[in-house]
Amino acid sequence: MYLQVSACWCVHRSSTPPSRTVGSSQNYRHWVYTIPADHRFFGGGAGIVVFWGVLSRARWRMHSIRLAVRSCSPLVCGAMTDPGTTAASAHRLPKQTQRYGLDLHLWQPEEAAALHAVIPANVDHLRPYMAWIALEPQTLDQRRELLETWAADWASGGDLTVGIWRAGQLVGSGGLHRRPGPGGLEIGYWVARDHLNQGIATAASRALTDLAFTVPGIERVQITHDVNNLASARIPATLGFRRLPDRPSCIAQGPAGTGIEGLWQVTKDEWRVH
């Protein structure tokens, strides 16, 4: 993820996409820069978001740009939350869980080689809905730096980005993200092509939901996906999340993205009795 910069616009783009990519909107971590209010447009709504992978921060230190530690953005259309200022952020997210036959834990730099083996083998599979694939290829060193960034983000009270492992094999990646703002977390996930249709995304999302509700102050968990990503939509439906009204997406879109995201939510009380 380097050199290429992309703007995230709250607009609709039409397309005729495939529907087999299993992955939610918050499926992979990108550093995000947001333009200050005086440089925004759309009436102070979403603003401009540009994302990058693992370029040296020094190259991007500009007085007019501030870093927002978020998977593709801390934006909800028309509103912005800073992960460092929410009440929930006072609690560092738990960094691991082993449930439902899976091991989900915070990515460690020494696991870069495993990620480096899986991503190139899944570029075509992930490309339709994962904007960050356009920023491939990356070197092993770049992936290691990215994992270090995710670990630092978590340590500072930000998002949790995890590898999804089964029997010691990397099968995907996911996370808990603070985009919903105080009291909420959003689940992200993607699953490697060779491990589709094995219940992995559902099990990982179930485990992440369980984990999210152990965090003090978290009362709701959300999952978002492009409205045409039908494979991803089946995950929250299976888990008993409620479908909320679709909304314009304020995160970067893959080539099959419509610019409209499906939104699902479950509350702590609902999850307890599910």
UniProtKB/TrEMBL annotation:
Residues 113-269 form the N-acetyltransferase domain. Transmembrane segments: none annotated. Keywords: Transferase. GO terms for cellular component: cytoplasm. Pfam families: Acetyltransf_3. This is N-acetyltransferase. The lineage of its organism: Bacteria, Bacillati, Actinomycetota, Actinomycetes, Nakamurellales. One of its GO terms (molecular function) is protein-N-terminal-alanine acetyltransferase activity. InterPro entries: Acyl_CoA_acyltransferase, GNAT_dom, Ribosomal_N-acetyltransferase.
